[in-house]
Amino acid sequence: MRVALLEVSHWHVPLYLNALEAPGIQVVAVSDAEHVKGEAIAARFGSRLYSSAYELLEREEVDFAFVFGRHSEMPSLAEAVIARNVPFALEKPCGINMSQVTRLRELTEEANLYCAVPLIFRMSELLSSLEDAEGRLPSDFNYMSFRFVVGPPSRYEAAGAGWALDPVYSGGGSTINVATHFIDLFRLLTGKEVARVSAIMNARTHRGAVEDYSLLTMQTEDGVIGLVETGYSFPSTADEQREFSFTLASDRMYAKSGPDRIEVRDRNNLSAGTRSRRLQLETDIYYPLFVKRVLTECRTGARPIASLRDAELMMQVMDAAYASARQGGELQTLRPLSK
């Protein structure tokens, strides 16, 4: 399979590369308008390097494209890929507002073209552990909360992606960059759409142009609550990069995170005490699995593990979160999206 990598000076790209060295995959072309990582990645794979993704698509014959880039430029890059009828994976959040993602979803559906989005918690040990504990997914959770606080904004500058700190190009800070995963996970675990959203945000830690702390709440129509806390304020080092913790409650069980584990209490069997299971909470390991999965799905004609429809519904919540924050946390009511 002939693969192209578009706009590789994105901090997630290094997590994809080992998986792309597998037999049967040939990375034939790389683009990098930022001129940061492209040369080294092209040399690694013996690929042709372009400073323009659009020139790459005009000149190269490829079977699949992995599309990265600035959030603001993702829609135009994806449209160029769709116009050439190339199946692809598009880094989240796929744009800076829902309307952009809606257009991409409509274009891929009209073209009957494969597109996957790396909402990687769909592949996580956390998801499988919750399914084992609850007995089924989706299930009747009553509430859930997630805290995912990553390192300082300087890490994006160090990675050659300083644009992530400019809302014109990124759309925002930790909310649009990190909360994406947990909005999607809330939908996946409950099997329900979000009906109401509120959020408050600030930039008090680093005092930059994008928020470095965010507290987002979601409610379903029947009252299930999801809380997502994100930030750029963890004092990270190579051996400890972030804080990730969670709590979920249903009529059947109560689950919470521990150090590298999930701890579960069964409401109907309290004499069993707290059951503990080791859990891989380092999320970077799921990107190579995503590469393998999407290329297999594309080859076999399977549906993507996460689609542009999933990204569209996630971005509806995202738009509402930023609207709420601008209004001091005012509750936003979401209209159901047409199928």
**Average pLDDT reading:** 97
- Give me the side-by-side strand order of the main sheet: 14-13-12-11-7-10-9-8-15
E-strand count: 15
- What does the overall shape look like? globular
Largest sheet: 9 strands, mixed
CATH topology description of the largest domain: Dihydrodipicolinate Reductase, domain 2
Helix content bin: 25-40%
Please name the fourth-level CATH homologous superfamily of the largest domain.
Dihydrodipicolinate Reductase, domain 2
State the end-to-end distance.
33 Å
Low-confidence stretches: none
Strand content: 15-25%
GO molecular function, one term: nucleotide binding
Protein name: Putative dehydrogenase
Organism: Paraburkholderia youngii
Pfam families: GFO_IDH_MocA (PF01408), GFO_IDH_MocA_C3 (PF22725)
Keyword list:
2 domains; globular; nine-stranded mixed sheet; 24% strand; alpha/beta; 339 residues; Dihydrodipicolinate Reductase, domain 2; Rossmann fold; six-stranded parallel sheet; 33% helix; single chain
Per-chain topology:
Blueprint: E1 2-6, H1 14-17, E2 26-31, H2 38-45, E3 48-50, H3 53-59, E4 64-67, H4 74-83, E5 88-90, H5 98-111, E6 115-116, H6 125-134, E7 141-149, H7 154-158, H8 167-170, H9 174-190, E8 194-202, E9 213-220, E10 225-231, E11 243-250, E12 253-258, E13 261-266, E14 274-278, H10 286-300, H11 308-326, E15 332-333
Parallel strand pairs: 1-2, 1-4, 2-3, 4-5, 5-6, 7-10
Antiparallel strand pairs: 7-11, 8-9, 8-15, 9-10, 11-12, 12-13, 13-14
